[in-house]
């Protein structure tokens, strides 16, 4: 029988591999979708409709899948995640030989992205489940591995697409989904590994809401909104900020071409953002011991808006790279911070649903970013598109500033 320390180290490695695989497939499928579909003669507004539909369906599926996981046996969460990754692998393989008919291409990409996005809260929940059982997985380090692999993938794939064309993408998708599927299969305790007894005082994620019951509270959407009004407002702020965030990420190829860049430049821009995220992700478990999660989320919302402004005023690729560098203080804080924040402000029995609603909020931001960005880029300029995004991001900043709860110690908020 292995010691608890050895078990924790092994599970941290497996969880890091799972995040590393997932964020590679996310970057390859989602961030290169515009490049791929433009090469298949889709217009920007048509791409926007496809992506909006994808985000709508995944936003609807995420809470449903999370609710099913709540009610199922403990190991079913990993089984569901593995099954959905296998579905993505199968779709990717079909894409490699499917006829280049626009309706078929659109349908396959729609299905691929819908399932891929639905997996996101499940991967988060897999880690949270072990954390809540006393196995203090380092979520920030695992997500940091995701940033590292995302950076390597973005840089490599950007160069490869620039040289070989977009027809290589389905083969890349299949390889990456296959790898991630294997990582999901091995993310479990082995027979000789021990799980420590649940100890809330040593958990990496702290909660200040009641922990009276471990049983999930099967709240409806309206019940959840009525119970957590400020958290719901916070989700609205996330949607506004992520509309702008997705406009930039989805249509990055248009933005970099506007200042003289190409696919290689786009891959480099994504890689810079991901590499600079890494230190923050790796040290996040230490940051939350020093700084309040709520204040960190407010700060990240400010930097999201600043990043949009710098992108708007950019006149060359260097300025785009500077803007992408700001991701280390925005996205890199928000992603792990939002996971920890759910466990700070929601009752334990509502946490999986809270994680799903948070992911759904970012996904709905993808809906708005897809539709608004696609429509504006079809009928107006890149600058006008970014200006509109900046307005939404600033509004989201205000909403998040007044809705995020901070810990109060001796009558003072921190």
Please bin the fraction of helical residues. over 70%
The CATH superfamily is identified as: MFS general substrate transporter like domains
β-strand number: 2
Query: Architecture in CATH?
Result: Up-down Bundle
Features:
mainly alpha, two-stranded antiparallel ribbon, Growth Hormone, Chain: A, 414 residues
Describe the protein:
The protein has helices spanning 4-30, 33-39, 44-71, 76-97, 102-131, 139-164, 169-186, 221-227, 229-250, 252-258, 263-282, 284-290, 293-313, 317-325, 331-345, 351-379, 382-403; strands at 408-409, 412-413. The protein has 414 residues and is mainly α. The protein has a single domain (4-193, 217-413), classed as Up-down Bundle (Growth Hormone, Chain: A). Strand 1 (408-409) and strand 2 (412-413) form a beta hairpin. Helix 4 runs antiparallel to helix 5 and helix 15 (331-345) runs antiparallel to helix 16. It starts with a helix and ends with a strand. The relative contact order is 0.16.
Summarize the structure.
This protein has 414 residues and is an all-alpha fold.
Q: Strands, helices and their partners?
A:
Elements: H1 4-30, H2 33-39, H3 44-71, H4 76-97, H5 102-131, H6 139-164, H7 169-186, H8 221-227, H9 229-250, H10 252-258, H11 263-282, H12 284-290, H13 293-313, H14 317-325, H15 331-345, H16 351-379, H17 382-403, E1 408-409, E2 412-413
Antiparallel strand pairs: 1-2
Helix pairs in contact: 1-5, 1-6, 1-7, 3-5, 3-16, 4-5, 4-7, 5-16, 6-11, 9-13, 9-16, 9-17, 11-14, 11-15, 13-14, 13-15, 13-17, 15-16, 16-17
